[in-house]
Amino acid sequence: xxxxxxTKHYGFxxxxxxxxKKVYWxxxxxxxxxxxxxxxxxxxxxxxxxxxxxxxxxxxxxxWIYRIASNxxxxxxxxxxxxxxxxxxxxxxxxxxxxxxGSLIDGDxxxxxxxxxxxxxxxxxxxxxxxxxxxxxxxxxxxxxxxxSVGALKASYHHAVKKIEQHLKIGLNQ
Amino acid sequence: MDKKIKHPFTTSxxxxxxxxxxxxxxxxxxxxxxxxxxxxxxxxxxxFDEQYLQILNKKKSQEHxxxxxxxxxxxxxxxSAGVMTVLLIIISYSYFGxxxxxxxxxxxxxxIQSDVTDMGDKLTTKAKKKDSLxxxxxxxxxxxxx
Lengths: 174, 146
Fold this sequence. Notes:
The complex is a heterodimer of chains A (174) and B (146). By secondary structure, chain A is mainly α. Chain A is 75% helix and 2% strand. Chain A has 2 domains: 1-87, Rna Polymerase Sigma Factor, Chain: A, CATH 1.10.1740; 107-174, Arc Repressor Mutant, subunit A. In chain A, helix 2 packs across helix 3, helix 3 packs across helix 7 and helix 6 crosses helix 8. Chain B has helices at residues 15-26, 30-35, 47-64, 72-141. The model of chain B is unreliable at 142-146 (pLDDT under 50). The longest helix of chain B has 70 residues, at 72-141.
């Protein structure tokens, strides 16, 4: 459908309809801010459109889109942290502030505390955690998306959970 | 004997429930499960419909873009690089140009200075000679026999 010019546009429209929300929520959980997530989601689909001809059908379409979305999130966060190649911007603090602002945030104290704990994780580990915990991806699917071995992903998720629980326990004891 | 002899050991009523809790508490993920997987993020009303249209519009503009390489970001990057290059050239010229001129001036100044000194010396020497010439004839008139 995507190779034929006559059906390419129709196929792309279907693609956006099917995966728009999944991509948005993936990016939103990573960048927290609605406007940033909106921009990223649109960028993801424009990239998908531009590279549809190059899509090798050895991977599923969802995995391919998910990979583009993941890379877009990680690149966006990396750019935000480094201004003039110097890491001077405290992104964690900024994301925590966004959670506290309440703008398009609808959760109880415990849910927000959990999100704050997740935000303290390293970027890729946070991505792994979100994909496993919230999106229920299998380790094999995550391996296809991130290009990391299943074993490494399991270890990463295990460490992420431990760090989060540690963070939550500290919060509860305060 | 068919009847089995029961063992004498007992536990409390809640022991096995407590045991299960203790085991789970030591495994990562137990605490996390209590927090649930609630999505705390929300979106404005009709957001996804509007975003869908925005994506399709952006796709259309991509197709009609004669120079797709020149997106706003890339244009800004090229212009910034150009401006920085020009500024660098101006600053370099100002600094090195000034330095060079100063060097030339100081060299020329040194040459001029030495010329002036030489000329001064020559004039002084000439004046001294003239003085001695002026003095000498008067000394001739006044002979030692008078």
